[in-house]
From TrEMBL:
Protein name according to UniProt: DNA 3'-5' helicase
Catalytic activity: Couples ATP hydrolysis with the unwinding of duplex DNA by translocating in the 3'-5' direction; ATP + H2O = ADP + phosphate + H(+)
Protein family according to the UniProt entry: Belongs to the helicase family. UvrD subfamily.
Broad class of enzyme this protein falls into: isomerase
Entry GO MF terms: 3'-5' DNA helicase activity; ATP binding; ATP hydrolysis activity; DNA binding
Domain UvrD-like helicase ATP-binding: start-end pairs: 14-286
C-alpha cells in the first residue's frame, strides 16, 4: 500500500475533525481526551490509527494497541480501521478488550509464571462469582460474616505475588492456590489480569517485547477503567517510549460498582504526563437533544462541559418525551402502536430503534418483546448475541453461509475472504488472488452439494464443518490468540450451529435463519450498561421509576450518569416511560413512585424541551 505524506493526509470518509482532535490524530504525545457523548472520541481513535498506519508514522513492524471496554466496541473499531486502511495495514492494529489483552499475555507466556502461580495448559474461565464463592466457603468458616462483593474484591484487589500476613490474606491465598491447581485450573478474568501483570512484572524481556511491539496505545471509555485494568496497563507500558491516547467522559461513568477507579483521569495525567484535551462537538444527537444534555450536564451532573450540535441538523430537530401509563399492558400496546407507525409509515428500520432498561431485562421488557414478536415487529434481548456476533469465527461462518446460499450477497463473500486472508498473512498479493478463487470454487461446490434437497439439521452441521475444515482449524487457532484453546473455539462454532438450527426449525429457510441470527430488522433490547458506545435513531427507555432505580439512594451519582448514558444513545428521539404499576420479578403487581428519582423528572421538565404526557392505547 502506498504511503501518504503526513502533510496531505485527510481524515477518512470526509470527516471534519475539530482542530484539537486533528492535532491529536496527527500527534505523537500522551493525551487524555475528555468530552461528552457523541463528541467523536471513538472516531478520533479510528482516525488516528488510520493516520499512523497510512502515513507510516507507525512503521512496520510496530503496532497499535487499542483497548476498548466491550467486545463489540473493540470489533467495531477494528472493522472501521480495516475498511479504511485495508487488510494489510490494519493487521498492525490490535483492537482488544482488557480481558482479551490480558488473556493473550497469559496464554502466550504462561510458562514464565512463577512456580507458585503455575496453571494447567488448558484452563476454565470462571464467569460466575458463585464458583469463586464456593471455593471460598470451603476455606473460610466465617464466610457468613463477609459480603459476597467483599470476597470477590479481596480475591482480586492485590497485586501478585501475595503477602501472607493476616488470617484474611491466608484464606484468600488458599483460594487462589486451589483454583490454580484445580484440573483444569479455574480462573476468573480478574485473576487472568493479575496473572498477566505478574508475568510482565517478573519477566523484563517479555515486558520489553510488549513495549517494542506497541508504539501507540489507545484506551477507549477510559472513565470506566478499573484499578486492576489500570495496574495492568501501568505494568505493561509505563516508562516505555510508547505514546498513549485515552478518551473518556466522566459524565458517563457507570461502572463504579464494578470497581471503576474514580480518580482515573487525574491518576493517568500524573502517571503519564498526558495533556487533558476537551472536545466540544456532539456529532450524534439532534440539537434539541443536545440542549437537553447540556441542561442535565449543568443541573443534574454539576459539570460545565457543554456541547454544540453538528450543523447537519435543523435547529428544531430532536424530541424527548416522558410517557406515563396506568399499567404495563397499556404501555406495551401504546409503544407497539407507535413503533408500528414509525416502521410502516415513517420507514424506520426496527434496527434503528433500541429499547433500554436499567436492569432486570426480562422483568421490564420480557412481555413487551413477546408482544412485539407476536404482532409482527421483531425484538430480542440483544445481550445474548452481542458476544457471539463479534467473534471472528462466528462472523466468518455466518458470512460464508450467506455467500453460499444468497447469491446476491457479495459483501458476505468479501468478509469471509477478509477472515481467510488473515489466516494467510504470508501470502503475496498474487497468491491472495488465487486464494480468492479457491474460496469461490468452495462456495460453488457447497452450494451445488446442498441445493438438490432442502437443508436438514444435519445438513447445516455438515456445511459448518466443511467451512471450518476449509479455513483450517489449526490455522484459525494459530492466527487468533482468543481461539488457541480448542474448547473455546469449539464452543463458539457450536453456538452458531445451535442458533442457526433453531432458527431454521422455525423459518424453514436458511437465509431467514441467518437473518434471524444477525438480528436483521429486529429491535435490539438491552440494559444501559450494554448500550455503552452505541447509537440509535430512537431510544425507548422502559421504567423511569423508583423500582428500576432501586440503587439511586446508595449510588446517586452513578445512577444519574446511567440515565445520561441512556438519553445520549439517541440521535433523534428518546422516550422514557413511567408505568403507575409494574410487575416485580416474582410477578406481583406493585405501585410505582418517583419519590427517589424526582430530581430526574424535575430536570427533564425544567429543561423546557421535554414533553411529559399521560398516554393510553
Ligand atoms: N468529525 C466527525 N464528523 C462527523 N461525524 C462524526 C465525527 N466524529 C464522529 N462522528 C459521528 O458521531 C457519532 C458519535 O461518534 P463516536 O461514537 O466516536 O462518539 P463518542 O464520543 O465515542 O461517543 P460516546 O461517548 O457517546 O459513546 C458517530 O456516528 C460518528 O460516526
Amino acid at each position: 500500500m502506498r504511503r501518504i505524506e503526513p502533510g496531505i493526509w485527510q481524515p477518512a470518509d470526509d470527516m471534519q475533525l475539530e482542530p484539537s482532535a486533528l492535532e491529536i490524530a496527527k500527534g505523537s504525545e500522551n493525551n487524555l481526551v475528555v468530552a461528552g457523548p457523541g463528541a467523536g472520541k471513538t472516531e478520533l481513535l479510528a482516525q488516528k490509527a488510520c493516520y499512523l498506519l497510512q502515513t507510516n508514522t507507525c512503521p512496520f513492524p510496530y503496532k497499535i494497541l487499542a483497548i476498548s471496554f466491550k467486545r463489540d466496541a473493540a470489533y467495531n473499531l477494528k472493522e472501521r480501521v480495516r475498511l479504511r486502511c485495508g487488510d494489510e495495514l490494519s493487521r498492525r492494529f490490535d483492537s482488544l478488550t482488557f480481558d482479551s489483552f490480558a488473556k493473550q499475555i497469559l496464554d502466550r507466556f504462561k510458562q514464565a509464571l512463577l512456580n507458585e502461580y503455575k496453571i494447567s495448559s488448558e484452563y476454565d474461565v470462571v464467569l460466575r462469582d458463585q464458583t469463586i464463592l464456593d471455593y471460598y466457603r470451603l476455606e473460610d468458616t466465617d464466610y457468613i460474616n463477609t459480603t459476597n462483593r467483599d470476597i470477590i474484591l479481596t480475591l482480586h484487589c492485590t497485586q501478585l505475588p501475595h503477602n501472607n500476613t493476616s488470617p484474611g490474606e491466608s484464606i484468600r491465598n488458599e483460594v487462589w492456590t486451589k483454583m490454580l491447581s484445580a484440573d483444569p485450573s479455574k480462573l476468573s478474568f480478574k485473576m487472568i489480569m493479575r496473572l498477566a501483570e505478574l508475568i510482565i512484572n517478573t519477566n523484563p524481556k517479555i515486558k520489553q517485547y510488549l513495549q517494542q511491539t506497541y508504539q501507540y496505545v489507545f484506551l477507549d471509555e477510559f472513565q470506566d477503567t478499573t484499578g486492576i485494568q489500570y495496574d495492568l496497563f501501568k505494568s505493561c507500558f509505563l516508562g516505555s517510549d510508547s505514546f498513549y491516547t485515552a478518551v473518556g467522559d466522566d459524565k458517563q461513568r457507570i461502572m463504579l460498582w464494578a470497581g471503576a477507579q474514580n480518580t482515573i483521569f487525574e491518576d493517568f495525567i500524573s502517571d503519564t504526563g498526558a495533556t487533558r484535551v476537551p472536545l466540544t462537538m456532539n456529532f450524534r444527537c439532534a440539537p434539541r437533544l443536545v440542549a437537553l444534555l447540556n441542561h442535565l450536564t449543568e443541573h443534574l451532573l454539576a459539570k460545565t462541559d457543554f456541547a454544540t450540535p453538528s450543523h447537519k441538523w435543523h435547529p428544531d430537530q430532536g424530541e424527548c418525551s416522558v410517557w406515563i401509563f396506568e399499567n404495563p399492558k397499556d404501555e406495551m400496546q401504546t409503544l407497539f402502536q407507535d413503533v408500528h407507525n414509525w416502521v410502516t409509515v415513517d420507514g424506520l428500520n426496527p434496527k434503528d430503534i433500541c429499547i433500554l432498561v436499567k436492569q432486570q431485562l426480562s422483568t421490564y421488557a420480557g412481555s413487551l418483546i413477546d408482544y412485539f414478536n407476536q404482532n409482527g415487529i421483531k425484538a430480542r434481548d440483544e445481550s445474548k448475541f452481542q458476544d457471539m456476533l463479534t467473534q471472528e469465527v462466528c462472523v466468518f461462518i455466518i458470512n460464508t453461509m450467506y455467500a453460499i446460499f444468497d447469491l446476491k450477497n457479495s459483501a458476505a463473500r468479501q468478509i469471509a475472504f477478509g477472515f481467510l486472508s488473515n489466516l494467510h498473512t504470508e501470502l503475496e498479493d498474487h497468491q491472495l488472488l488465487k486464494l480468492e478463487s479457491v474460496l469461490s470454487r468452495f462456495i460453488k461446490k457447497i452450494r451445488k452439494d446442498y441445493s438438490a434437497s432442502p437443508l436438514t439439521k444435519d445438513g447445516i452441521k455438515a456445511v459448518i464443518t466443511e467451512i471450518i475444515a476449509f479455513a483450517g482449524k489449526d490455522r484459525i487457532k494459530a492466527s487468533f490468540s482468543g481461539y488457541k484453546n480448542s474448547a473455546v473455539l469449539d464452543l463458539y462454532i457450536k453456538e452458531v450451529e445451535n442458533e442457526l438450527i433453531n432458527n431454521y426449525t422455525t423459518s424453514k429457510d436458511i437465509i431467514s435463519a441467518l437473518d434471524m441470527l444477525i438480528g436483521k430488522d429486529t429491535i435490539p433490547v438491552m440494559t444501559i450498561h450494554k448500550s455503552k458506545g452505541l447509537e440509535y435513531h430512537t431510544v425507548i427507555f422502559i421504567g423511569l421509576e423508583d423500582g428500576a432505580f432501586w440503587t439511586f439512594q446508595q449510588q446517586e451519582d452513578e445512577d444519574k450518569c446511567a440515565f445520561f448514558v441512556a438519553l445520549s444513545r439517541a440521535k433523534e428521539r428518546v422516550v422514557f416511560t413511567f408505568s403507575k404499576q409494574r410487575e416485580d420479578k416474582y410477578g406481583r403487581m406493585r405501585n410505582q413512585s418517583i419519590n427517589n428519582i424526582e430530581i430526574l423528572f424535575q430536570e427533564l421538565e425544567k429543561s423546557g424541551v421535554v414533553n411529559i404526557i399521560e398516554r393510553r392505547p
